Amino acid sequence: MIGIGVGKRGAAARAAPRAEHARLGPHDANAVTAVDPFYAGADSLFVRAYDAFYRSEPPQIAGDVAFYAKLAHASGGRVLELACGTGRVTLALAERGFDITGIDVSEGMLTMARRKAAACPDAVRDRLTLVHQDMTRLDLPARFGFAFVPFRSFQHLLTIELQRAALAATKRHLVPDGRLALHLFDPRLDLLSGAATLPAEISGADPATGHRFVGEILRTRFDHLAQIRRDVWRYRELNSTRTVVADETREMALRWTYRHELRHLLELCGFAVEAEYGNFVDGPPAYGEELIVVARSKPSS
Ligand SMILES: C[S@@+](CC[C@H](N)C(=O)[O-])C[C@H]1O[C@@H](n2cnc3c(N)ncnc32)[C@H](O)[C@@H]1O
């Protein structure tokens, strides 16, 4: 999800994907990152409601799977998704025949991804690897032709140091000339000054239970110096009689990054920007729309 421009609980896990490592968790003493706990815990509403809210492809992500599939095909080699969450894109790419590794710092989100993977045919599961890792400390025994960070997940990195650590680690995992795609939002100044507000509510149904999830932002704080927006979200679960059966509140923090800032950051970290878009159907960069960048790893000097 992701806060700006806001547009199953499955059966118990049976089979795990091919390889699962648990090298780094949110409580790893050496972790450089302060992990945003928004997506922590498989039982949390913030994890359980994720697919209900985003399965229907709201405008921010409309067409993203096809976009990443096209780049994966053009790049060749193995595919790496950083911050794969519940496997919304990961599973779709494995179903399209790509050999894909998804990493995420949230065990809760990965639990959801594994439950969904367990319901896939063996051939799809065999192409899928889910790993519990932090993208700022990525350490995998493989190199990839194409890596991507979907749905504004890069914006969970709240400092330049964490952004640089993630980009450096990603570059180490790409083959020479490998590609990286990043999806952020293009900062809309009215939303970031408080002059405009986001849609009042997001909602979606859990296909397994028929319960309805509803999310709303209760309040927002801005740190304009650090370019961070903090939204306090309230999620509720309503049963068939509209009775609230669960109610949780958590804060989500996102750092906004300007298009030219991102370009400079990528150059600094050894990437050459190849293309920029304002949506997933090849639209040009546009103020306040999506900020999608495709870059190539440059040879290290
Ligand atoms: C909006 S969800 C995106 C999930 C999925 N990629 C999608 O497009 O539906 C953001 C994800 O970023 C993950 N995340 C945040 N910081 C991370 C980090 N430092 N390393 C890896 N994953 C991270 C969260 O745990 C969460 O699953």
Structure report:
The chain has a seven-stranded mixed beta sheet with strand order 3-2-1-4-5-11-10, sandwiched between helices. A four-stranded antiparallel beta sheet has the order 6-7-8-9. The longest helix has 13 residues, at 160-172. Helix content is 25%, strand content 29%. It has one domain: Vaccinia Virus protein VP39 (Rossmann fold). β7 and β8 form a beta hairpin. The protein has nine helices and eleven strands. It starts with 44 loop residues before the first helix and ends with a strand. The protein is globular. Mean pLDDT is 88; it is low at 1-34. It has helices at 45-48, 50-54, 64-75, 88-95, 107-118, 122-126, 160-172, 189-193, 259-268, and strands spanning 79-82, 100-104, 128-132, 144-149, 174-185, 202-205, 212-223, 228-238, 244-255, 271-277, 290-297. With 301 residues, it is α/β, with parallel strands linked by helices. Bound molecules: S-adenosylmethionine. S-adenosylmethionine binds at residues 1-2, 33, 36, 39, 54, 83-85, 88-89, 104-106, 109, 134-136, 150-151, 153, 156. The site of S-adenosylmethionine has 22 residues, from α4.
